[in-house]
Backbone:
């Protein structure tokens, strides 16, 4: 049972939260400009690192706010939590393939 | 000391942690015996001269109590009562007055009578959790608590003290062991933030120091009714100190399971803690120093002891050996017990000399005895450490797998860490307690009992551990004079012997995990506590050369792979050690836990919340049968006297199509959406446009996932320019709100939208059928219900004849003229009753979900989750009209992916069985007729058969007078008119493919 510090409510049990997958995967500005393959990259492909991973959580049984957390996928340790309007902490892995330049 | 021959023939006159003023009676297999408060069932049996317990599970060999703790593999009982509990170890069962038990032969039977006891759960957060209350655990808890940290101390026994209870005469921190326990206990109980839990076993250790423990509370529960007899503790701890001790290993020799063969430490515990003497003429067979303490206490208790020591000389234990000699012991060095005389109980031990290779070096002599105490060395209890993937390493000097690297925020101390000297345990425990307290932010304040000893380097500490442990000469299997291994029991509970291990390696098993599964060793109730390491030790003797090289990597405790040093002949230079092999994986639970304890109060009606509509009582009174839809209890159908489900549904369908009927639609999800940008928000969520929906009107909408799959549907009303009322499917309400919030917060935070679930605030009655207008006219006299005055997909705010304000909509899920009356939930029952009364003259009929399904299927209205499964687009449902070609919405880009536009997608059609009475099973597969090839109907057709679709909904239609079904079929619309075969239950039946809508294709009935 992880204890996740909600940026708005403080530390709460994992059971109060729901998981939202990888963070910082921007919805493409112009989906119609993407090839099928690029669109599929956005839809279905996410990173799966062993180590630090920026991901989205919702405090669904609490304030219902979404936020980002950096979790170590090996140890389950959560090292950062931050609001959606805050920048990603320094030194984290870069955004995934899905956000690559159109046509790249 | 003389033996007091009272009714408890094996009870010593003095000593023990017993309340001798409280003699209590118990019954075992119908025989009445007595013991004392403070006894376990096993100690009371020993005190009554009974070592013999049930037989073994498969071989039916007589067995005796082997241990004094949770590792017991033989002594199992059933506790008889209103609900019998089976397979409880006698060694941990606290004796209580009137206890009635039956000895079991290694297996129990689950009582099929219900267990009516209470079970509950506690959820707590602690700064420091200390597990185990031996010297290391007590020292740790004391230090951890001294700075004010919130400490929970867990002890699985009913008394604190652990090994100290078996060493009552030693001095601990300057005072007697029992005084020390009492002092620390008093200190802990005086600390406001400390919780001491006895009878509480931590059986699982999970990420983030999440611990699960079972507390046994029988004495609390029997003292006052209505409280739980077992309690599950869920604990999240900042720091964890594991002070969980070690298990003594038996020795594997011929007939080592005869009653009267007992672990040496257990013998000491029975004598010292319970003043119960298991035998008077004792052969003590040991591989190490620790058993000399047993010899000492036995001698003191008046027993005669002959020591058989595997070691050629006892260098490191000079003092112990000298002490033993002084106590008048006979010691046979370089010797082993090679066999037992007796079958129902020990009458003698065969003792023979052994050579350096552990082989017999002379003839065996028979020593008469009534007890053989054995010590094969010690195994640190690493279960909880290893459950967290804590690392282990084989320590040859300690002859055990020992934690080699800590888990984050955990400390391993005491015998569980290979620290066997009591003073060292105090030092290690206190250090961990202070470390844990400091890490938790509550630095210890007291001066420690260890005098704040200066921390040594790891090497120095290891040397100290090794010195204290003395030398160990493990004997993984003692040869029998006749060479057999058939009664060398490795895992007594599973009746597995050294011969079984030999068969496993002979069959090619090299990994300890494979040997475990080939033999079933360690799969019994003690989960390898008794036999695990002995099995691994045995493997070191059985695997050599290329076999040893073939041992796969990846086990806990396994040495890092290294270049195997080869001899000139190409063989590995030395035999494997247990570290070469590693251990099996440790998993929760550490000790057995009843499912009923895991369930706690979550049984019966408390298993899950049941949601009911305000009119639920009316439905019950009118004989409704209910179906579960999510947590909702929805009326399914309302059978009248003599009606079965089909008859009731046919009658309800007739009423809705020909007269008037009403249904409770309260369960539909309802979400209010407010804000200046609410229209734009909905326009992006739904596949169809919502920007220009006029106030006062509603619109059916479909929402899709980003990948373009149908996610939910429903009608949304525009209440005001900036205010909408969305309905969702009954089962989808929560996930739709989640979905809307996710997009609102994460992608479109710039949109001014507020989302509120109002499912519980509104009650909804659907009034359906050609006569529904008449009913609504009576109920809502202020409303113009004419076709012209109240159009389809419009709603009106009105006041009902009853004075209740209502929102009435013209929406249909049956194709018939229909209205939905929404009122505040408080009035739900009243309005439902009013509808029933107003409709009485028209023969109004209540209907349930089954009729609703039939009516909508006749019109091919899909149900999300029934006609869709996460792979179905609106187009697949024939609903191209609901997908905007001009605006942007969630999922739009996906519709132009090749996979969506190419042929071969499964699409909605109806299928009609040629047999009009046949109702196809939902899920039946559809195939093309020629797919069967030359199949004659005998046996099974040759596989594989390409399937082209499957049935999603299937009913009998009252309106059509026949059975029908909806189906998803590859390129369905192009197959209309074709005949397919439906496959189910081993038969193939012809069905005709039709367009989805079978009834009222023109939609002529909608306006009445």
Residues:
């Amino acid at each position: 049972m992880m204890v996740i510090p909600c940026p708005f409510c403080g530390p709460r049990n994992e059971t109060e939260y729901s998981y939202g997958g990888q963070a910082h995967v921007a919805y493409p500005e112009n989906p119609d400009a993407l090839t099928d393959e690029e669109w599929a990259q956005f839809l279905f492909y996410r990173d799966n690192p062993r180590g630090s991973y920026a991901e989205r959580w919702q405090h669904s049984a609490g304030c219902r706010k979404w936020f980002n957390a950096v979790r170590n996928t090996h140890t389950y340790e959560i090292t950062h939590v931050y609001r959606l309007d805050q920048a990603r902490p320094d030194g984290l892995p870069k955004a995934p393939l899905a956000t690559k330049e159109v046509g790249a | 000391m003389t033996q007091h021959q009272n009714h408890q023939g094996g009870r010593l006159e003095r000593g023990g942690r017993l309340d001798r003023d409280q003699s209590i009676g118990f019954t075992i297999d119908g025989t009445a015996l007595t013991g004392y408060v403070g006894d376990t069932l096993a100690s009371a049996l020993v005190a009554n001269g009974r070592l013999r317990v049930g037989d073994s599970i498969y071989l039916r060999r007589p067995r005796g109590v082997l241990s004094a703790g949770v590792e017991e593999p033989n002594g199992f009982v059933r506790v008889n009562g209103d609900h019998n509990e089976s397979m409880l170890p006698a060694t941990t069962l606290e004796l209580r007055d009137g206890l009635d038990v039956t000895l079991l032969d290694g297996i129990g039977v689950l009582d099929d009578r219900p267990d009516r006891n209470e079970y509950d759960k506690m959820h707590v957060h602690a700064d420091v959790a200390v597990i185990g209350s031996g010297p290391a655990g007590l020292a740790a808890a004391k230090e951890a608590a001294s700075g004010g940290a919130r400490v929970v101390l867990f002890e699985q026994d009913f008394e604190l003290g652990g090994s100290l209870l078996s060493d009552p005469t030693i001095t601990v921190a300057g005072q007697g062991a029992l005084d020390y326990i009492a002092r620390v206990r008093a200190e802990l109980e005086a600390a406001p933030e400390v919780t001491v839990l006895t009878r509480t076993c931590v059986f699982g250790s999970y990420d983030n120091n999440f611990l699960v423990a079972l507390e046994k509370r029988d004495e609390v529960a029997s003292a006052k009714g209505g409280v739980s007899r077992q309690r599950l503790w869920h604990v999240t701890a900042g720091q964890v100190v594991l002070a969980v001790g070690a298990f003594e290993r038996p020795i594997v020799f011929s007939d080592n399971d005869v009653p009267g063969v007992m672990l040496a430490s257990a013998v000491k515990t029975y004598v010292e803690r319970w003043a119960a003497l298991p035998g008077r003429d004792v052969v003590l067979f040991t591989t190490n120093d620790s058993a000399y303490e047993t010899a000492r206490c036995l001698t003191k208790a008046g027993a005669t002891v002959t020591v058989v020591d595997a070691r050629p000389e006892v260098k490191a234990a000079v003092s112990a050996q000298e002490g033993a000699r002084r106590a008048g012991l006979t010691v046979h060095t370089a010797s082993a017990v090679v066999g037992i005389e007796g079958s129902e109980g020990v009458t003698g031990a065969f003792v023979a000399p052994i050579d350096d290779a552990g082989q017999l070096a002379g003839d065996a002599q028979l020593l008469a005895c009534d007890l053989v105490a054995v010590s094969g060395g010690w195994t640190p209890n690493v279960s909880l450490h290893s459950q967290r993937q804590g690392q282990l390493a084989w320590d040859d000097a300690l002859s055990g797998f020992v934690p080699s690297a800590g888990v984050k925020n955990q400390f391993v101390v005491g015998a569980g860490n290979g620290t066997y000297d009591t003073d060292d345990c105090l030092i290690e425990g206190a250090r961990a307690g202070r470390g844990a307290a400091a890490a938790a932010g509550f630095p210890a304040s007291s001066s420690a009992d260890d005098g704040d000893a200066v921390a040594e380097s790891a090497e120095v500490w290891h040397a100290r551990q090794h010195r204290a442990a003395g030398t160990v000469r493990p004997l993984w299997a003692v040869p029998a004079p006749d060479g057999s291994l058939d009664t060398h029991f490795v895992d007594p509970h599973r009746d597995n012997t050294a011969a079984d291990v030999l068969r496993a390696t002979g069959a090619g098993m090299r990994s300890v995990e494979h040997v475990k599964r080939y033999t079933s060793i360690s799969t019994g109730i003690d989960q390898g506590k008794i036999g695990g390491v002995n099995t691994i030790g045995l493997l070191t003797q059985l695997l050599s050369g290329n076999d040893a090289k073939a041992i796969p990597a990846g086990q806990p405790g396994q040495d890092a792979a290294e270049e195997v040093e080869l001899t000139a002949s190409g063989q590995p230079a030395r035999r494997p050690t247990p570290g070469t092999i590693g251990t099996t994986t440790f998993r929760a639970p550490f000790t057995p836990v009843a499912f009923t304890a895991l369930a706690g109060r979550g049984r019966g009606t408390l298993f899950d919340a049941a949601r009911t509509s305000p009119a639920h009582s009316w439905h019950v009174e009118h004989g409704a049968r209910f179906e579960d839809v999510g947590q909702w209890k929805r009326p399914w159908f309302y059978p009248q006297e003599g009606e079965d489900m089909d008859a009731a549904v046919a009658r309800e369908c007739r009423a809705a199509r020909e007269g008037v009927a009403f249904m409770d639609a309260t369960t539909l999800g309802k979400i209010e959406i407010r804000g200046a940008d609410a229209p734009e928000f909905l326009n992006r969520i739904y596949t169809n446009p919502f920007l220009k929906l006029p106030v006062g009107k509603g619109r059916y909408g479909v929402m899709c996932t980003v990948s373009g799959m149908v996610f939910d549907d429903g009608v949304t009303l525009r209440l005001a320019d900036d205010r909408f009322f969305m309905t969702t499917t009954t089962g989808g309400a929560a996930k739709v709100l989640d979905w809307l919030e996710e997009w609102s917060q994460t992608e479109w935070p710039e949109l001014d939208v507020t989302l509120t679930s109002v499912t519980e605030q509104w009650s909804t009655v659907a009034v359906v059928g050609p006569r529904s207008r008449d009913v609504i006219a009576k109920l809502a006299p202020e409303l113009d219900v004419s076709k012209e005055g109240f159009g389809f997909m419009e709603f009106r705010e009105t006041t009902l004849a009853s004075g209740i304000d209502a929102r009435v909509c013209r929406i249909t899920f049956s194709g018939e003229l229909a209205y939905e009356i929404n009122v505040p939930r408080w009035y739900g029952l009243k309005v439902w009753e009013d509808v029933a009364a107003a409709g009485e003259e028209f023969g109004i009929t209540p209907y349930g979900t089954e009729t609703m399904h039939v009516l909508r299927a006749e019109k091919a209205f899909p149900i999300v989750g029934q006609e869709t499964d996460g792979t179905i687009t609106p187009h697949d449902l024939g609903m191209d009209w609901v997908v905007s070609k001009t605006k942007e919405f969630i999922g739009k880009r996906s519709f132009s992916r090749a996979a969506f536009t190419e042929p071969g997608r499964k699409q909605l059609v109806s299928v009609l069985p040629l047999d009009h009475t046949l109702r196809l099973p939902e899920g039946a597969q559809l195939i093309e007729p020629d797919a069967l090839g030359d199949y004659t109907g005998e046996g099974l057709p040759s596989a594989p058969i390409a399937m082209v679709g499957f049935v999603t909904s299937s009913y009998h239609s009252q309106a059509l007078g026949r059975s029908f079904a909806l189906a998803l079929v590859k390129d369905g619309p192009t197959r209309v008119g074709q005949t397919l075969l439906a496959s189910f239950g081993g038969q193939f039946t012809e069905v005709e493919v039709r367009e989805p809508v079978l009834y009222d294709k023109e939609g002529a009935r909608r306006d009445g």
In short: The interface with chain B takes residues 1-3, 13, 18, 20, 27, 31-32, 34, 36, 39-40, 43-44, 56, 58, 60, 64-66, 75-77, 84-85 of chain A (CB under 8 Å).
